[in-house]
Amino acid sequence: MTAASGAARAQGAEAWPSKVVRIIVPSAPGGGADFTARVFGRFLERRGQPVVVDNRPGAGAVIGTDAAKSMPADGHNFVLATNSTHAANPFLFKQLPYDPVRDFAMVGLFGTYPSILVVDAKSPYRDVADIIASARRTRGGLFFGYYSSSSRVPSELLRAAAGTEMTGVSYRNVTQILTDLRGGEVAFAFLDALSAAPALQEGSGLRPIATSAPKRDPRRPDLAAVAETVPDFAMEGWMGFAAPAATPPALLARANTAVAEAVASPEVRKAFEEQGLTPRSLSLDEARDFLAADTRRWREWVRIAGIEAE
Predict the structure, then answer these.
(1) Do the strands 21-25 and 51-55 form a parallel or antiparallel pair, or are they unpaired?
(2) CB 153 within 8 A of CB 129
(3) What DSSP state is assigned to residue 121?
């Protein structure tokens, strides 16, 4: 590399961001990933930086994530990465068209979240024990709804731990599940904390009864942990930021700094926490190591849940 090209690259890093930042969200508007991307986008826009949030849902977040790997690696194109897209999908799909490690560079983390076990407000289920007992005495077990790995896996882990029959029903989005929960078509569902936020409000027609976090959240001390009934039950998801793998390290570092500054911002932290996301930022190295560890966890969870790759 010549001195001139090196200087130009350094100048480009200093000027970041120098044009529109595009964030692909591999899910529909209104969900947890979309919310997270838009909160971060508004943070950048308050600094005078235009941001485009590009929703590309479908196929368990595969369509949008696959599209993101081919975006220009110029430090201005990113994907809203999650435990589904980057840790779970390699074990849920036989022919995943992207490789989370080879095709992407983790930029950072926005935060972690549990899944919330939700039932219809009129249902007889008041706790996890009620669901397990009903599944054991019901021919064919109970039906649960799911729309992603973060939604399906905790239900399958509960089924495995209880040693009873439960059948999953796949949905395209959270809205469809909420409708069928209220209609009694499915008995329960685990919703990621961000998507479950409306169900935690009075008058929603739904009742949250447990969290998949290892212990109760001090912000919701009335919400039991599944682990109180099923020992050692714990599963949390995350929202992160990734770029095409060829993105220059200097630009990844600048983007990582922006993510860390956003997570430290009182306005962003408040928005995240109100939606059930626990803010957490990591360095580039820490983000890479975090993904490696979470990938190992999801490999084991998918095995225990007995889910066969599609």
Answers:
(1) parallel
(2) no
(3) T
